[in-house]
Design a protein that fits this description.
The complex is a heterodimer of chains A (210) and B (364). By secondary structure, chain A is α/β, with parallel strands linked by helices. Chain A folds into two domains: 4-81, Methionine synthase domain (Methyltransferase, Methionine Synthase (B12-binding Domains), Chain A, domain 1, Orthogonal Bundle), CATH 1.10.1240.10; 89-207, Cobalamin-binding domain (Rossmann fold, 3-Layer(aba) Sandwich), CATH 3.40.50.280. Chain A is 58% helix and 11% strand. Chain A has helices at 4-13, 16-28, 33-52, 58-81, 102-113, 127-137, 149-152, 155-164, 181-186, 196-207; strands at residues 89-94, 117-120, 141-145, 171-175, 191-193. Chain A is globular and about 55 Å long. The two termini of chain A are 33 Å apart. Chain B has 364 residues and is α/β, with parallel strands linked by helices. Chain B has one domain: TIM Barrel, CATH 3.20.20.210. Chain B has 15 helices and 14 strands. In chain B, α11 links the parallel β10 and β11 (286-288). The longest helix of chain B is centred in the middle third of the chain and has 25 residues, at 192-216. In chain B, strands 2-6-7-10-11-12-13 form a seven-stranded parallel beta sheet. Helices cover 39% and strands 17% of the residues of chain B. The chains are: A alpha/beta (210), B alpha/beta (364). Chain A binds chain B through residues 14, 54, 56-60, 62-63, 66, 97-100, 102, 105, 124, 148-151, 177-178, 194-195, and chain B through 106, 108-112, 117, 119, 121, 123, 181-182, 185-186, 188-190, 229-236, 239, 274, 316-317, 321, 353-355.
């Protein structure tokens, strides 16, 4: 019988080989894919909490996310067949003029780890591209990241473009090293995420599923 | 007091006639500032920058290499920088280019209310492929041409100014430019031997350059890597201890054996309080740039003022870009009263960019 606690533990330490092996076993035993997925999600919960407490750092986050990604790839066909899909979709990108992505990538990993569907637009993304993607994918969250003081001001345009596009109840969440809660409020964003770990809680709260 | 004596006094924890100051600029900001100073009659004419190893003619180098220093001297700065190493690859072109290490760069424009600025980002990594590591040949740090400019600076200005030899991006920065950022972060926790192999390239290069600059007579060596993020270390203290502490310790020991009076500065952005005791332990004298939004300068002085000296502390995330001239003056007074109390401070931001009004820098 596949040991899902071993799957959780493997993702926690970034052991992708074990994560894939246990997932494969669980899939072969026709375990409920939702149960397998839950074991992965709880691992990323733990990882996020440790990161927030500065017990682990970016490298550890990256290998945990990688382990989850590879294990998820094994699970994906079963989830699809069972009609299990993420309930909510988020679009994420680094703002126009900014090529930095480590923070944005970590948030994307954590959101996926919390079972959001994440559409990652990459870096140097203009307001129109956020709107187009949000519309196309039915996103309820638009996440915008910036590393530079010089580029974060364009986040205001993303907020304006999202509002003007009348997409329904889409929440704009902003973050990045130079971004503050005050700045987020000043530009009319719906929420501010100070780091990748908190970003999961912030996203869930923003759409009312916390 | 001349400029050099002023810095020496501050670093000896004596109180100088005024706090010594050092500011670097992005190329666009330097151009605006130069024009402003010419208009005010403080500079006779726009300076022609010497071309050294690919530095663009007329362009200010934030790390120092190739600068003529008219700008720094007109602003009454006390420190002149002269840089050797990978960091001279920044701001080389407005288009894509590849530096001599094989790192691919892209120039990215950004808009400010004062005009367009550009920053350069590394986008091509010659050691992305594991197989490329064993056969990689880094540039040669012993080429005479690398040190011609430093010789000029020391000869022409060494009596009057405090000369800082810059070998920043000493290990981690150059290494991730070679390998890839997320890649090397992961390598450090999964492939220690491969990581060692990659780190040796910039480490050996910059250590050789550091030793040479020390022998030539710089007053301080400026080393460093960005190991901190806004809210903590980028990677764990244990990781830093495994890969960077012994290498930095060796570099520092070697340059101080050449010149026991040499000061060594360590540059890192972000919050690195977890390794401050160990930085002091391996012989780092000066912490730079003291990003105030991440580590409180007053706290640093209280906790580490006896073990570390400080270079920087002026906020360029909030105060310089968005504050008023009065805000800048208030912040400077606060720093002088706290982290600069009793000496031990070289004042400045890290690098001022196009977002900052010229008036902020001139304190008017």
């Amino acid at each position: 019988m596949a040991d899902l606690s071993a799957l959780t533990a493997a993702i926690e330490v970034g052991d992708r080989a074990t994560a894939v092996r246990v997932t494969s076993e669980a899939v072969a035993e026709e375990m409920d894919p939702r149960t397998i997925l839950d074991a992965m999600i709880s691992a990323m919960d733990i990882v996020g909490a440790r990161f927030q407490r500065n017990e682990i750092f970016v490298p550890e986050m990256l290998i945990s996310a990688r382990a989850m990604k590879e294990a998820t790839a094994v699970l994906a066909p079963v989830l699809v067949a069972a009609g299990v899909r993420p309930e909510h979709t988020a679009v994420i990108g680094t703002i126009r003029g900014d090529l930095h992505d480590i923070g944005k990538n970590l948030v994307a990993m954590m959101w996926r780890g919390a079972n959001f569907e994440v559409v990652d637009l990459g870096t140097n993304v203009g307001p129109e591209a956020f709107v187009t993607a949000a519309r196309e994918h039915g996103a309820v969250i638009v996440g915008v990241s910036a590393l530079l003081t010089t580029t974060m001001v364009a986040m205001k345009e993303v907020v304006a473009a999202i509002r003007a596009a009348n997409l329904g109840d889409v929440k704009v969440i902003v973050g990045g090293a130079p971004v503050t809660a005050e700045f987020a409020a000043a530009i009319g964003a719906d929420a501010y995420a100070p780091d990748a770990a908190t970003a999961v809680e912030v996203a869930k709260t923003a759409i009312g599923v916390a | 007091m001349n400029h050099r004596d002023r810095v020496l006094a501050a670093l000896a924890r004596e109180i100088p006639d005024r706090c010594p100051m050092q500011i670097s600029f992005t190329p666009e900001f330097a151009a605006r500032l130069r024009g402003d100073l010419v208009a005010r009659g403080l500079l006779s004419d726009p300076a022609v920058v010497l071309n050294v190893d690919g530095n663009r003619a007329g362009e200010h180098n934030p790390h120092g290499g190739g600068n003529t220093y008219e700008l720094e001297r007109a602003l009454d700065e006390d420190i002149l920088l002269t840089s050797v190493g990978w960091a001279n690859g920044y701001y080389q072109e407005d288009s894509e280019y590849v530096d001599e290490w094989g790192v691919g760069w892209r120039s990215q424009a950004y808009e400010t209310r004062f005009g367009t600025g550009r920053y350069t980002e590394m986008v091509g990594h010659p050691l992305a492929d594991d197989a490329a590591i064993a056969s990689y040949v880094p540039p040669d740090p012993n080429r005479e041409s690398l040190y011609v400019d430093s010789g000029r600076v020391i000869r022409d200005f060494g009596d009057e100014y405090f000369i800082v030899g810059a070998t920043v991006t000493t290990i981690w920065e150059t290494a991730w430019a070679l390998r890839g950022y997320e890649r090397l972060l992961i390598d450090m926790v999964t492939e220690p031997e491969l990581t060692d192999a990659v780190l040796e390239f910039p480490f050996q290069y910059h250590m050789a350059a550091a030793e040479r600059l020390t022998r030539m007579g710089v007053d301080m060596l400026w080393t460093g890597d960005d190991i901190g993020s806004q809210r903590g270390m980028l990677f764990s203290p244990a990781t830093w201890r495994r890969f960077y502490k012994p290498r930095m310790a060796e570099l520092i020991a070697r340059v101080k054996a050449i010149n026991p009076a040499l000061k060594v500065a360590y540059h890192t952005d972000g919050d690195v309080r977890d390794v401050l005791p160990e930085l002091a332990e391996i012989g780092i004298d000066v912490l730079n740039p003291v990003q105030p939004a991440c580590m409180d300068p007053a706290w640093l002085k209280r906790e580490y003022g006896d073990r570390l000296l400080f270079w920087g502390s002026v906020d360029e995330q909030h105060t310089l870009p968005f504050g008023s001239p009065a805000d800048v003056r208030d912040e400077i007074r606060l720093r002088l009263d706290t982290i600069g109390r009793g000496g031990g401070l070289i004042l400045g931001p890290h690098i001022t960019s196009s977002w900052t009004p010229r008036s902020r820098t001139c304190g008017r």
